[in-house]
Design goal:
single chain; 10 Kd Chaperonin, Protein Cpn10, Chain O; 6-stranded antiparallel beta sheet; 89 residues; two-stranded antiparallel ribbon; globular; 0% helix; mainly beta
């Protein structure tokens, strides 16, 4: 597992999947791509809890592949908002 350092978050991209009546998985193109918090650095100001869903500045995200999974590392200042009561399917 990756561990965030100092003022960083380790996150994973989340895309909500929509299903048609026939069972085909669709991707809603208008929906904002979200991120989910995997690890929090010890110096993050006002940290959000692990597992929280975020809207972030993706241009500031550094892609990292670890154990065949895609993660991103961002500074806490790249977080624009926390999405409360988001239900991920």
């Amino acid at each position: 597992m990756l561990r965030a350092t100092t003022t960083r978050y380790v996150i994973q991209s989340v895309e909500k999947k929509l299903m048609s009546e026939g069972g085909i998985i669709l991707r809603h193109s208008d929906e904002q791509q979200l991120a989910q918090v995997v690890s929090i650095g010890r110096d993050v100001k006002d940290p959000v809890p692990l597992g929280a869903f975020l809207i972030i500045n993706w241009h500031d995200a550094v892609a990292v592949k670890h154990e065949n999974q895609q993660f991103y590392v961002i500074d806490y200042r790249a977080v624009h908002a926390v999405v409360e009561d988001y239900e991920y399917e």
